[in-house]
Specification:
The structure holds two protein chains of two kinds. Chain A is mainly β. Chain A has no helices and eleven strands. In chain A, the strands form two sheets. In chain A, strands 2, 4, 5, 6, 9, 10 and 11 form a seven-stranded mixed sheet that branches. The mean pLDDT of chain A is 91. Chain B is mainly β. Chain B has strands at residues 9-13, 18-23, 33-38, 45-50, 53-56, 61-64, 70-75, 84-89, 91-94, 97-101, 107-112. In chain B, a hairpin with a 5-residue loop joins strand 6 and strand 7 (70-75). The mean pLDDT of chain B is 88. Classes of the chains: A mainly beta, B mainly beta. Chain A binds chain B through residues 4, 33, 35, 40-45, 48, 56-59, 90, 92, 97-101, 103-109, and chain B through 30-32, 34, 36, 41-46, 49, 87, 91-92, 97-106.
Amino acid sequence: NAGVTQTPKFRVLKTGQSMTLLCAQDMNHEYMYWYRQDPGMGLRLIHYSVGEGTTAKGEVPDGYNVSRLKKQNFLLGLESAAPSQTSVYFCASSYTDRVNTGELFFGEGSRLTVL
Amino acid sequence: LAKTTQPISMDSYEGQEVNITCSHNNIATNDYITWYQQFPSQGPRFIIQGYKTKVTNEVASLFIPADRKSSTLSLPRVSLSDTAVYYCLVPSYSGGGADGLTFGKGTHLIIQP
């Protein structure tokens, strides 16, 4: 059982380049999330999705786009990468609305460096 | 927005009981309190969740007083492997509904031999 899988795990970009991070979960979860974590900081929510075909902005959405075309996948895109987007990105998923009883399952993270 | 406040760091020794307290003054009536653990270079891992009074599982206990404005994570007999960052979370709200679990900076727990 793979759980939550993030691809790629490491990537180096030049300023202005674009890329997509893929998150895949095999637990049939409705809810999926993208967080970023900077050194010494907690996780900040970028975007989230409450089901296939839906997306919503989180705390720090600027500079990112997301898509949830399939229930099991949640894609995070950077159209024009900036050094400020150097961070570790975590994807998470949950079965129920985590507001009340849902437990978040996290991937191992994707380390992105923008030069 | 329901925000949480917890100590930035704590030290303890192997075999001791560790209690980490989190304040969440603006917690909403239906909100649960959730705690996560994060090791370096890994994603956070769910530890325990509760609504009121006391919850216990094989890893930890969670104490929540009647006013629910704070909660205490209790780790019994810690070992070196419990060195990690611990996050206390409550839902965050924007507009009409909850839109994510807000992770603060967490508490960096260091266990010494």
